[in-house]
Amino acid sequence: MNFWVPFFQMIVLFGMMATGFFCYKKDWMDDSAASKLSKVVVNIFNPLLVINGVLGQNGSADGDKIRMNLILVLAYFVILILFGYLVVALLRPKRTERTIYRLMSAFSNVGFMGIPVTKCVFGDEAVVYVAFYILVYNLLLYTYGTVLTKKAAAENGVTDDRAAEGNGNAGGVKKALKQMMNPGVAASLLAIIIFGAGIQTPDFVNNFCDYMGNATVPLSMFLIGVTVAQANVKSMLGDMRTYLYIVMRMLGLPILLILLMKRLPIDPVVFGVFIIEIGMPVGGIVTIMTKESGADADCCTRGTVLSTLASILTIPVICMFL
Questions:
Q1: What are 108's strand-pairing partners?
Q2: What are 275-311's pLDDT values in tens digits?
Q3: Whole-number Å distance between alpha carbons of 164 and 157
Q4: What is the distance of C-alpha 32 from the center of its chain?
Q5: Of 49, 67, 171, 318, which is most buried, counting CB atoms within 10 Å of its CB?
Q6: What CATH code is assigned to 4-320?
């Protein structure tokens, strides 16, 4: 793929992020407004974008693509979980950051940023494939993710009781299941059903989902810009280990996988979505979980902000190898 096509797409997205950054710095957007808007995007616009990606498509002829996508989804999480252990062994972060690096590696921004970027690079067709990543992501986040969050909190000197209270696991399995069933997961399930069954919806439904869903792209990028504005970026710039991590995670790993897998008989769009998701920055939800649990949130915030900024260049670079 030509470098400049995804690069200019990322420049457009970066412009949306810059708008959010500017509005926050001008005090046109405060923390409260950003928090409320984020809830609207996560619970309404983003789910509608997932559904809109499958409307009007006939899933009956794409069984092979779906099966291959499922295999790659499972491979995606296995690879990233193992990569988390590898990166700790190679970078040797301090004790309070070891589990944080595993969390950042396993849980990237597959939905909030992954959907807009995938849509811009590969079009609406690719969104249905992302739905499968979101489903497995949520399943792992509130199981494996909460286990790692507790461990990270313990490494930071926080007791198990406080960690459990902070990350919302006091309700046990029942609460974890409730957290897993959110609008994003529900929309992903619905999108898979619509796509697999080849359900045709009326034009007014298609238009509604199209208009509302497409608002996700500028709004989500706007909110990421607000997140960057909220962070003290200058204080983050001196950590060399974070830079090495970003190079390994967002360039080295995707390019290595492309070189190893490119000759396999995989649909180019399915494979492209897999690589784009591998190259996504650290997910914002990880920062929230670490803050609430009492783990080393500074490390996670640094990784989230810097990897998001780096993605403007890293994603076009890995697209060159596709």
A1: 282
A2: 999 999 998 888 878 887 888 888 888 999 999 999 9
A3: 14
A4: 23
A5: 49
A6: 1.20.1530.20
Report the interhelical angle of 4-25 vs 216-230 (nearest 10°): 60
Q: Which of 185, 190, 216 lies closest to 201 in space, CA to CA?
A: 190
Q: How far apart are CA 287 and CA 149, in angstroms?
A: 10
- Both structure tokens of 99: 């589990």
Q: In this structure, what are the phi and psi dihedrals at residue 282, rounded to the nearest 5 degrees?
A: -65, 140
Alpha carbons 107 and 307: distance in angstroms, whole number = 13
Q: Of 17, 1, 4, which is closest to residue 310 (Cα–Cα)?
A: 17
Task: Give yes or no for a contact between 86 and 253, defined as CB atoms under 8 angstroms apart.
Answer: no
User: Cα–Cα distance between 52 and 69 in angstroms, integer?
Assistant: 19
Structure tokens at 173: 């399995």
Q: Check whether 245 has a pLDDT greater than 60.
A: yes
Specify the DSSP class assigned to residue 264. S
Backbone torsions φ then ψ of 108, nearest 5 degrees: -95, -175
> Whose structure tokens read 């969104």?
127
Beta-carbon count within 10 A of 120 CB: 19
Predicted TM-score (pTM) of the model is 0.84
How many whole angstroms separate alpha carbon 12 and alpha carbon 65?
29
Sequence spans of domains, the chain? 4-320
CB-based contact 113:308 (threshold 8 Å) = yes
